[in-house]
Amino acid sequence: MISATHTHSGPAGYLDQVLYQVTSYGIVPGEREALAAGIVSAIVAAHNDLSASSLEIGVGQLFDANINRSPPSYLANPAEERALYNGNTDTNMTQLAVRDAAGNLRGAASWFAVHGTSMNNTNDLVSGDNKGFASYLWELAQGSDFVAAFGQTNAGDVSPNTNGPVCQDTGAPCDGGKESCGGNILLCIAHGPGFTSAGDLGGDFASTRIIGTKQFETAREIAASGTGVTTTGPVLFRHAFVDMTDVVLPDGNHTCKPAMGYSFAAGTTDGVATQIAWQGDNTTNYDNPLIDIARDILHPPSAELTACQAPKPILLATGEMTFPYDWDPHVLPLQIFVVGRKFVIIGFPSEITTMSGRRLRKSTLDALIAGGTVDADAHIVIAGLSNHYASYVTTFEEYGVQRYEGASTLFGPHTLQAYQSLFSQMATSFSDPSASLAPGTPPADVKDLSFITAVVLDTTPIGSSFGAVTIQPPAVAHTGDTVTATFQCSHPRPGPGGPGSFMTVDVLNGGEWAVFLDDAGWDTKFHWKREGSSESLCVVTWNVGATVNVPAGTYRLTYNGVHTTFGFHASHSGSTDAFQ
Ligand SMILES: *[C@@H]1O[C@H](CO)[C@@H](O)[C@H](O)[C@H]1NC(C)=O
Ligand SMILES: *[C@@H]1O[C@H](CO)[C@@H](O)[C@H](O)[C@H]1NC(C)=O
Ligand SMILES: *[C@@H]1O[C@H](CO)[C@@H](O)[C@H](O)[C@H]1NC(C)=O
Ligand SMILES: *[C@@H]1O[C@H](CO)[C@@H](O)[C@H](O)[C@H]1NC(C)=O
C-alpha cells in the first residue's frame, strides 16, 4: 500500500490521466522514475531491516489544527447522523507504532484528518507541507533509526487554514454559500494560523510549522502515553482492481463514468482555481456563455452521463474524453489490511470527506466484526490517496450541494455507497471466500505525452564555470541569520546527480567536511533562475538555527548539479568559502 498526502508543493506530472497532467503540461520527464526509485529504495531498506517487532495502537485528540472548508455540504447530512459526532471534522489521531524486541520505538504511522495545504498554491518550492514537517520534526527528535509517517485520512473537506475564509480586501467574512466577496471568489481565501496580516510574506511557512508541530506533538504524546494496545495475529490483505464506472448497488442504483462539475473549476478557499464558477454551482446556464462553449469544444457530455451524474452540472465530461488518453481513471485499486485482531487499514484511492470516511469506516468494520475477523474493539483507519488518485468522494447528501468536493466526486451521486459495498465485500471475504471480489486487471500503461520543452543546453558566462560562487556568504553568521550564497548553476532537471541533494550545509569535523543539512531540511532553500537562454543562477539559503540547533563551528554551503549539452549530461558541484 503506497499512501500519499495532498500537497500543493509537490512535483507534478507523474499520474497517467490527462486531468492530473494539465497543470504540468503533460508528464514531466524523469519525474516518475525519480519517485519510483525513492519509493523502491525505501521498501528495500525496510525489507533489509526486518526484525521481530510489536505493533501498538494509540488514539489521541488534536484540536485547533483543522476546520471544515465546506460546512454547507456537511450540514446537508441528516441531523441524527451529525448528532453522533462532536463536530464537522474528526479530531482523533490514530497511531500504529512499531517497537523492537527491546521495546524501543522504531517507527510510527499517525493518521490525522487534515489537508497538507498550509503551503499555498502560489509557493513554488517543493515541500512536504504540514505532514512532511511533522515527520521531519519527530525524526529529528528521535534520531536516525526512527521513521515517522503522517497520513492523510478522511480529510477531503478538511483544511489546515484554521483562520477561516475571509475577504482579502475588506477583512469581512465571505458569503458562505459561494465563498465569494461581492461576487469575486478570488478574494475569498482561508489562511492558516501563521498569517498575521494580509499579504504576509512568510505566513504560509509559519502556518506549516504550527500545524505540523501540533501533529508531531500529539503523535509523540500518544506514543509516550503508555496507553497503547498491542495488536497480535496475522497480517491479512485483500486487493482488487475495480471498474468504478458501472458498479450496481443492491438497491439498483449505479455509478457513472467520471465527470467534473462546475464548482471543480472554482477550487476551494485553500486555493482558488479560476473565476469562471463558484462553489455550490448547480446551474448549467452559467452567466458566461463562453464557458459552456469551451466545454462543448472539449466534449459535450452525453445525455446518459448528464442524467447519471445529476444534479451535478457537468463542466468536463472526463469519463467520455479519451483523447489523447483517458482524462480520469476508470479502474481503481482497492485494498485492505487487517493487522492482527485489532487494527484495520483501508487503502482508499481518493480524498474522502469527514462524514463519508465515518460511514466507510463503520460499514467496513461492522463486516469484519460480523465475520469474526477482528475483535469487537478493533480500530480502523482510512489511508487516503492510496495506490492511485481519483479526486474526491462525498456522501450522497453532500454531493447534492455540489461544492468543490461534490463537483470532484467522479463516479456520480452513489460513489460512496459503491465504495462501501465493495469494501464490505472485501471485509466479508476474509471469513466467507464466496464474497471475494475478482482480482481485476490493472489499467493498461499509456504512452504519456509531454509538452514541456526539453533542457537542451546549459552554459556559463565566459571565464566562469558550473559551481562557481558569484556571491559568497558573510564570514560570520549567528543563530537567527539567513545565510545566502549564489552559484553559477544549471537547469535543475535532470536532478542533482545520483541520490544527491541540490545543496548541502557542510560542517568541518576533525579536518573533514561532513553534511550537516541537505535540501530536505526545513531551514534550507534552493532557488533556481534561468538567465538568458542557457545560463542559470542558483541561490542557496540557510536560516541558521530556525529548526535545527547549530553548534559554533566552521561551515560552508555546497551546490550540486548536472548540466546538459545537447543530450549529454555531466555532474558538477561547488562550495563557498568557509564561514563561522
Ligand atoms: C475517536 O476515538 C475514540 C477512541 O478510540 C472512539 O471512541 C471514537 O469513536 C473516535 N471518533 C471518531 C469520530 O472516529
Ligand atoms: C500564499 O502565501 C504567501 C505568503 O507566504 C502570500 O504572499 C500569497 O499571497 C499567498 N497566496 C494565496 C493565493 O493565498
Ligand atoms: C437510489 O438512490 C436513491 C437515493 O439514495 C433512493 O432514493 C432510491 O430508492 C435508490 N434506488 C433506486 C432504484 O433508485
Ligand atoms: C440549485 O441550488 C439552489 C439552492 O440550493 C436550489 O434552490 C435549486 O433548486 C437548485 N437547482 C437545481 C437545478 O438543482
UniProtKB/TrEMBL annotation:
Residue intervals of the Neutral/alkaline non-lysosomal ceramidase C-terminal domain: 425-580
One GO MF term attached to the UniProt entry: N-acylsphingosine amidohydrolase activity
Record's keyword terms, sorted: Hydrolase, Lipid metabolism, Metal-binding, Sphingolipid metabolism, Zinc
Cofactor(s) recorded in Swiss-Prot or TrEMBL: Zn(2+)
Reactions this protein catalyses: an N-acylsphing-4-enine + H2O = sphing-4-enine + a fatty acid
Active site residues of this protein: S159 (nucleophile)
GO biological process terms held by the UniProt record: ceramide catabolic process; long-chain fatty acid biosynthetic process; sphingosine biosynthetic process
GO cellular component terms, A-Z: extracellular region; membrane
Bound cofactor: record note: Binds 1 zinc ion per subunit.
Neutral/alkaline non-lysosomal ceramidase N-terminal domain span: 1-420
Binding site for Zn(2+): H6, H115, E351, Y392
Transmembrane feature ranges: none
EC number: 3.5.1.23
Classification via PANTHER family: CERAMIDASE, NEUTRAL CERAMIDASE
Protein name, UniProt field: Neutral ceramidase
Organism: Blyttiomyces helicus
